[in-house]
Inverse folding.
């Protein structure tokens, strides 16, 4: 019940134990094409360039930034938590110039402030985190796409913690590149990063295309732009690999491709609206339960993610021991916190298979017991009852 | 029966379907420590810093190079094939200055030429591929470590295609960083890259340590050196993650960790010498069988890898159709070739679970039939008989 990685859906676990195929076997490239189509559905996009990166969600972020940003480029980073800082950190390693538009941890950034910065800086890219699990806040992104288009910037969104759990309407937002990971609401393991890229962004990236010497004569034309600073994360090469050209790059990780495929199949079988509702209901039930126990919820409730909840540690309660007892006595993992919130809030996720009634109720019952052992007495049964009431 | 990826060992497939654990769960970090110990055995090293990178073998290469090389650094690349070119390509993206020491495809580089270049250039790093599957050649590396030590250079080896199939004695070589992948002789899927790093190389990398802003206060001291140009491949951060500090970085991909662990357990249960012999015998049997069929083997036989064999395409035989018929009629994949060898040689692997008698014999029997259908008549049964004779 942490903020991810979470338990993997049994069908996804099973998919990973299937024998692999050669990466250019037509049956396997057929699965790759299926994955592209499935994630168009998950991302609510028509983008041709929709596929997965062989690495964790952080690999997806780095691929997006290093393939887009050239040294000296300006980037506006919308930041209100650890993962906003991570975007800036990666952009700086691309030798881009970072301008922050910030809110304090537990709040979200005002879109007007983003517009002001974009007008002033005229960046190549505006980079945003949708749901920052470090603060449990979901940044409103509905206006940012139009701001970017009006000022000739590309829009990047890190949707690792929200994709398939909260609404991530890529085309409606007008986002150019959106990346995620499987280990949150998608209910898979980390290690594969779904990505979608608009034609506009792809055109920019292909302008930096470079074909490996060892493959000379087999690739497309080289672009006029500066070579991308990473080979592994060179999205121009990776798109050539996922295209009909099938130009050799890395060796696709078959078990993770199968996992990504099964995650997306499960999402689309359930349906996006039903899945968003399930996550919202689980988050509401968890929140109601925790409040009924007399605990305080962290952050601006108006912008709280549905799928992760921060809890202020009550006075006199041992932070680490509560976590340890949840794990050792109940086999339930809850999350600690980062940076300024270390030791101050716990984070409980309700994601993927854990966004279900029994998981919420079991966690609240266990939490009540563990807090009681630490000297914090909640009204007996109040948490479970309040959560059950949300489920009706 | 390609040059990798190959079929995955059934125990490794099973390991990947185990439910995952939180990345900081003591049981999970225990498995991480086990993986470190197991790969010390596989790499024949005492190096403390022995672990895995979450990505394919190419991710391991990039992590080694980008964490070691600073812009302007000199690197000597020992090159005689596609994967030597890849090392140079990645080094160039690190803005390092590449000096090649080269041999033509199908040959190996003379260590004396390496020494001459190292004396002249005084590089930060000498980068070598051990077994380059594009040419089927194994580069002799026994003298390179001493050359590097004598001239203050670090030695990097890409052992993707040979680790656990041919002798890779890291400490005896005096290699500073060696990386691999699971999808060749280790008998796993691609997607996890084992790496080992000497104390000397680790010290250099830690001099470039940088702690993420979002984790401020929880990490070690920042180094004086220039920040590493990648976050995902920043080995200083990744070592901090694998150390007792457990400093958060990426979210470890649990199924691939379990796969890497099971691959190493299988290797050490079999024993390295027995495993090397098994690969050598399978390669010798395959070679004998192909030659008995009247086919010509590609490259310098004195330096041929034991676990992959290149075959010149006989005149009048359709390159792609042979591959397609092997796959569609016999469900046996064989490899095509890269760059100057495209359309000229096929490559047949004998790696991992495929380095076994029945796999060699089945492949030769099928190959004889398919070549006959293409108008190339080998003496009936000669390939299978010659291979069986090698097995005695």
């Amino acid at each position: 019940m942490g903020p991810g990685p979470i338990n993997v859906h049994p069908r996804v676990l099973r998919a990973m134990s299937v024998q692999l195929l050669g990466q250019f076997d037509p049956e396997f490239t057929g699965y790759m094409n299926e994955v592209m189509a499935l994630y168009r559905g998950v991302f609510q996009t028509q983008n041709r360039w929709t596929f997965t990166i062989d690495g964790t969600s952080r690999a997806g972020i780095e691929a997006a930034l290093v393939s887009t940003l050239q040294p000296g480029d300006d980037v506006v980073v919308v930041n209100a938590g650890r993962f906003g800082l991570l975007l800036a950190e990666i952009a700086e390693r691309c030798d881009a110039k970072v301008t922050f538009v910030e809110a304090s941890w537990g709040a979200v950034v005002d879109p007007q402030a983003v517009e002001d910065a974009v007008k002033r800086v005229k960046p190549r890219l505006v980079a945003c985190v949708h749901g920052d699990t470090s603060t449990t806040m979901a940044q409103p992104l509905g206006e940012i796409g139009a701001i970017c288009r009006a000022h000739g910037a590309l829009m990047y969104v890190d949707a690792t913690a929200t994709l398939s759990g909260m609404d991530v309407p890529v085309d409606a937002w007008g986002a150019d590149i959106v990346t995620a990971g499987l280990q949150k609401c998608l209910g898979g393991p980390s290690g594969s990063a779904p990505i979608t890229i608009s034609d506009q962004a792809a055109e920019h990236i292909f302008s930096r295309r470079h074909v490996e010497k060892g493959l000379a004569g087999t690739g497309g034309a080289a672009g006029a732009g500066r070579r991308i600073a990473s080979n592994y994360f060179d999205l121009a090469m990776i798109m050539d690999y996922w295209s009909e050209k099938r130009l050799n790059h890395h060796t696709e990780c078959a078990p993770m491709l199968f996992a990504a495929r099964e995650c997306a199949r499960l999402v689309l079988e359930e349906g996006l609206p039903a899945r968003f509702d399930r996550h919202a209901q689980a988050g509401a039930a968890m929140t109601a339960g925790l409040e009924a126990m007399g605990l305080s919820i962290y952050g601006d409730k108006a912008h709280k993610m549905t799928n992760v909840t921060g809890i202020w540690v009550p006075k006199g309660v041992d932070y680490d021991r509560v976590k340890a007892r949840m794990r050792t006595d109940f086999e339930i993992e809850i999350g600690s916190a980062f940076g300024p919130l270390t030791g101050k809030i716990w984070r409980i996720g309700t994601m993927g298979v854990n966004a279900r009634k029994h998981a919420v109720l079991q966690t609240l019952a266990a939490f009540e017991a563990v807090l009681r052992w630490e000297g914090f007495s909640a009204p007996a049964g109040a948490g479970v009852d309040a959560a059950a009431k949300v489920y009706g």
The domain at 272-391 of chain A is CATH 3.90.1150.10 (Aspartate Aminotransferase, domain 1). Chain A has 14 helices and eleven strands.
